[in-house]
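Page 42, continued from yesterday. The earlier attempt failed because a stray header line got pasted into the input along with the sequence. Redoing it now with the clean sequence only.
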Amino acid sequence: MTQKNITHYIQKHILAVLESDSVVRFRDLRLDDVDTNLLSYHLGLLVKRDLVSRVDGGYTLGSEGLAYFGKAPSAGGQIEVQVMLVVQNSEGDILMQRQTSSKWSLPRIGLKASDVSIQSAANNLVRGSLGADFQPEHAGECYVRVRDGKKVHSSTLAHVFRHYSDDVDETSRLKWMRPHKLDQVELEPAVEDIMTRTFFRDPYFFEEFIV
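This time it went through. Structure tokens are written below.
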């Protein structure tokens, strides 16, 4: 599966949203000025090609969709490895990144085989997604397993980095939020747990979260 196989902008949008999330509801796949029936049509084409799968609660990447992004299935297969950032400013706010129209997470990026090191991947996340220039500290690791009943839907190993900075500007995808008000927005699994764990300021930590 190569990039040139997906040419329509609606299909590219759907796959881009699903890449950064485990399960996405139909309403979170919508595009401004795109008719619902047209979105459903292109979503159906992706489902037929196994680029997208229909699951309880919405849609996720199918086996071809995982291959499209160079990923392996996490449940029953390899664990997805990510780099996550916990960035806090002098006001105590936490930097959050929009994943879908309604869901937020800590800034994150998948670890690639081509990355020279975990630290370099974190530095690339700072420069590429945050538009900043600092080197975050590797704080620890978190193993996150998301279950759907008794079935494990996804497994992620997150290398968590932290930094204190006032040099990141808000954008359409980045927003500073008060930690005690995070319950007012929809978050990715274990986001508050990971954020809270970094506040302990241990030299290094490892935690497992099952949600």
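Notes: The chain has two domains: 3-68, 80-210.
Reminder to self: strip header lines before submitting.
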